[in-house]
Design a protein that fits this description.
single chain; alpha+beta; 32% helix; 6-stranded antiparallel sheet; Jelly Rolls
Length: 372
């Protein structure tokens, strides 16, 4: 197997100095130890030199870890002793991974050597990644034998189609009728958005969330990889296909608020958690739990602070209402009007500029429609 980057611990330390110890490693070999006394500044880490990366490619970080002694677990800190990865662009600036600066692996909490593997896919915009081991508790921990390798691709079976290629694991294929429904859904969404399908669109079907997370290193039911891949646990994932097409054709390099991007995908899919988004939003309204549209539109942070079951349903219901009342062309104008930064207060201004009505007034009208 090709080795992309290999480093015996004791190499470059970016966050703090962690000295190599001659007999700290497994079997008496060389290793390194974190010492974090109570009262010291938290977050010690060992970060390797950046490794050039291929966007959309999957890698695996493997390392041996041991929690020698735990004194205290500070509140609000990431989970203890973990492998981690940070992504950077060509300028050396951090590239968030699903909205967070670091991707953490499963923490080690045992006083014996434990091997940890962290698989991940390089996100869009990343030029390189920095593999690391972070220790955010008070106490002592040891680390040894870290390496990064390309993750071995799974044994996918491919079913070529007309404009859409289905990929599935052995024993998890789709019947002819479902494959036809999948292709028809992709064509319908392509026509609705006015975005041509990739040639071809690659649809990866996973048997469950656990398998998707293991192979991709991300949580959830669906993950898209531009320019042409949808990875999903669903036989037909209209939400994922809509997201891919909108990101690809409408705003590939813009910071469109999740309220609009996720809302569009839910609206076009027509269902969220098995029900129409309008029905879910109406239920939330009846329980007086309907979140503010204006607040959700400010940034990714304000959107994801709302429970996903509510955030996606409300976004889909609101965007669907906008499209039904004002047309998809005007919504596209709003969708593509944002730059490369979070909109913040500009969100309400952009909405009013496109629709000629203050956002608060639009939200009042939409809420009133839920009562009908």
């Amino acid at each position: 197997m090709e080795t992309v980057g290999r480093s015996k611990v004791g190499g470059p330390a970016r966050l703090s100095t962690v000295a190599p110890l001659p007999r700290a490693g497994r079997g008496g070999s060389g290793g390194a130890r974190f010492v974090q006394p109570v009262g010291a500044r938290l977050l010690k880490g060992l970060v390797a030199l950046p490794i050039p990366a291929v966007e959309g490619r999957r890698y695996r970080l493997r390392v041996w870890l041991k929690l020698d002694r735990l004194e205290r677990r500070p509140k609000g800190q990431p989970p203890g002793l973990s492998a981690a990865v940070r992504f950077i662009d060509e300028k050396g600036e951090a590239v968030p991974y699903r909205g967070r600066p670091w991707l953490f692996g499963k923490p080690v909490r045992a006083a014996e050597w434990t091997e940890r593997s962290l698989e991940f896919v390089v996100p869009r915009g990343a030029f390189a990644f920095e593999p690391a081991v972070l220790f955010t508790w008070y106490g002592e921990a040891s680390v040894d034998d870290a390496e990064v390798v390309p993750a071995e691709p799974p044994d996918w079976e491919e079913v070529p189609g007309q404009g859409l290629d289905l990929h599935h694991l052995p024993g998890d294929g789709l019947d002819a009728k479902t494959r036809e429904e999948l292709t028809d859904t992709a064509r319908r969404l392509s026509k609705r958005l006015g975005v041509p399908l990739p040639h071809p669109l690659h649809y990866y079907k996973y048997p469950d969330r656990k398998t998707l997370r293991y192979l991709l290193g991300v949580k959830g039911d669906v993950h898209i990889v531009l320019p042409d891949e949808v990875h999903s646990i669903l036989p037909v994932d209209a939400f994922g296909i809509a997201r891919l097409l909108a990101d690809r054709g409408w705003a590939p390099d813009l910071k469109t608020p999740p309220l609009l991007s996720r809302g569009l995908a839910v609206a076009l899919a027509g269902r969220w958690l098995g029900e129409p988004p309008e029905k879910l939003a109406r239920r939330l309204a009846g329980q007086r739990r309907l979140p503010s549209i204006e607040t959700m539109g400010l940034s990714s942070g304000t959107f994801y602070r709302v429970h996903p079951a509510a955030a996606y349903a409300v976004a889909g219901a609101f965007v669907g209402w906008l499209i039904d009342h004002f047309g998809i062309d005007r919504f596209k104008t709003l969708y593509t009007s944002f730059g490369t930064q979070e909109p913040g207060p500009l969100f309400a201004e952009r909405v009013e500029a496109v629709y000629g009505v203050p956002l608060k007034a639009l939200e009042v009208q939409w809420r009133a429609s839920l009562a009908l």
